[in-house]
Design a protein that fits this description.
Length: 483
């Protein structure tokens, strides 16, 4: 596809002969889908969407029912994956474009946060690179400007990654105006395409090319599809098929979004087929997850997705904003069709892969402090982690939320809204949809969880929003939180 790919492949082949790796090496494909909701896949209960390839993958992998992102929006979660650190500790709690210019017209003024992932942090790519892996990033990056691109965080190859969070269009040439401000955007590294070419297909083509050109060296593929983020653009013929399938009783009602999910499914299938063609499926770990909950707001007047039975979606700290699909297939480790009900988080990927690389303890960077290795859990889904509590901190606004922090301990979950310290308490074991606020009926439990949440914020030096003295006083409102 490109001359430099061939030259790079030859160089890697020569390096592989000089510095041959032993048989314990494994490849890793980490598939991070943008905005994919917990209920958007067939194997997680989708009604309109058809995902046969991912469903088959799920049957060959371990499925997690309580997998969580570290943040309800993209950039912070992606930073947690790359470093193993919680976004609140990193001071990366919102996406790059909004980090330096918080709104000044709200009751609270969100903090100015870091928009770039500092080069001082050790990333997954750097760990793999040190171990002799070919490291490739494809698709969405969104962790900083050019001085903080994948190439400076341990990746040998970067195709399609920039500081933008989404493309202006999913069709070639992947450039043009985006949003109300008509900002001109493009996806880098997408030259040589053709009319009608679809970005999800193209990124898979590039990934397959990378796998074929590694020269026999193990690889770490950070496969970050831009789909199913806005703009909501499915292939017209596929969208028409879903238009004909729509039923008013379905939770999912967006045919173009369904078409985007189908294209994702098709391309995950292509990646898995390529592993078989290359005869490396038995030595390749495949992880599939999302960076936050499904987007439940509107695009061009139509609601994008529905996370039922979970409440709300992207941006919110209700379950619909932070609980996501997660499947891990680790040949020789996970049992096909196994299911784990343990709470896990995106901070766990880093220490899990570090342990698998068998690095000496003194070489493990401190960046893995906020996660735990899942290796024991992957071997035995009935085992338990040495942890029963997760935390979230989102001191910003979004159409689904006001600034808020949250804690889940066992089946209990508490949300604390910073505008007036409003408390909401739910028991997820009895109320997965978070419809019954038990804060008044369970004051002792609420107070204990609120105290733990406050202590954790201090431990990680979480940035807090400040009261806006210029904002007119008005009665408390939900601010769209119940969506």
């Amino acid at each position: 596809m490109r001359l430099w790919f061939s030259l790079f492949g030859c160089l890697l082949l020569w390096c592989g002969l000089v510095n041959a790796r032993d048989s314990k090496d494994f490849n890793v494909i980490l598939i991070v889908v943008d905005d994919l909701g917990w209920a958007d896949l067939g194997c997680y209960g989708a009604d309109l969407h058809k995902t046969p390839h991912i469903d088959r993958f799920c049957q060959s992998a371990m499925k997690f029912t309580k997998a969580y992102v570290a943040s309800p929006v993209c950039t912070p979660t992606r930073a947690s994956i790359m470093t193993g650190m919680h976004p609140a500790r990193l001071h990366m709690t919102i996406w790059h474009e909004a980090s330096a210019n918080p709104p000044q017209d709200k009751p609270l003024i969100p903090p100015v946060t870091r928009g770039n992932l500092a080069l001082s942090h050790t990333t997954l790519a750097e760990v793999f690179h040190k171990e002799g892996y070919v490291t490739a990033h494809l698709g969405k990056w969104h962790l900083g400007t050019a001085g903080f691109y994948p190439e400076l965080h341990g990746f040998d190859i970067n195709i399609g990654g920039s500081f933008w969070g989404c493309p202006p269009t999913f069709f070639y040439p992947y450039r043009g105006p985006f949003g109300q401000r008509k900002e001109m955007r493009y996806v880098p590294g997408m030259e040589g395409g053709h009319e009608g070419e679809y970005l999800t297909d193209r990124l898979t083509n590039e990934a397959i090319q990378v796998m074929a050109e590694t020269g026999g060296k193990p690889f770490f593929l950070n496969m970050c599809y831009y789909t199913v983020h806005t703009p909501i653009e499915g292939k017209p013929a596929v969208a028409a098929k879903y238009e004909a399938r729509l039923d008013e009783n379905m939770h999912h009602q967006n045919a173009h979004y369904a078409a985007m999910v189908e294209s994702l499914d098709e391309n995950v299938g292509r990646l898995l087929d390529e592993l078989e063609r290359l005869k490396i499926e038995k030595e390749t770990v495949v992880i599939l997850t999302s960076d936050n909950g499904g987007f439940v707001n509107q695009w061009h007047g139509q609601k994008v997705t529905n996370n039922h039975p979970l409440r709300s979606g992207k941006g919110s700290l209700y379950e619909g904003g932070v609980r996501v699909p997660l499947m891990i297939r680790w040949p020789g480790t996970t049992q096909p069709g196994s299911v784990s009900h343990e709470m896990v988080t995106t901070c766990d990927f880093f220490p899990t892969l570090q342990e698998a690389l068998d690095l000496p303890t003194e070489e493990l960077p401190k960046s893995s402090a906020d996660g735990q290795s899942l290796m024991a859990l992957l071997k035995d889904p009935s085992s338990h982690l040495q942890r029963d509590t997760l935390f979230w901190h989102y001191p910003h606004y979004y159409p689904t939320t006001e600034p808020v922090s949250s804690i889940r301990s066992g089946d209990w979950k508490l949300l604390e809204y910073h505008r007036d310290q409003r408390i909401e308490l739910y028991h997820l074991g009895d109320d997965l949809s978070e419809s019954q606020n038990l804060a008044v009926r369970q004051p002792t439990k609420a107070a204990a969880l609120q105290k733990r949440l406050s202590v954790w914020r201090e431990e990680v030096n979480a940035q807090m929003p400040q009261k806006n003295e210029r904002h007119p006083k008005e009665p408390y409102s939900s601010g769209g939180r119940g969506q």
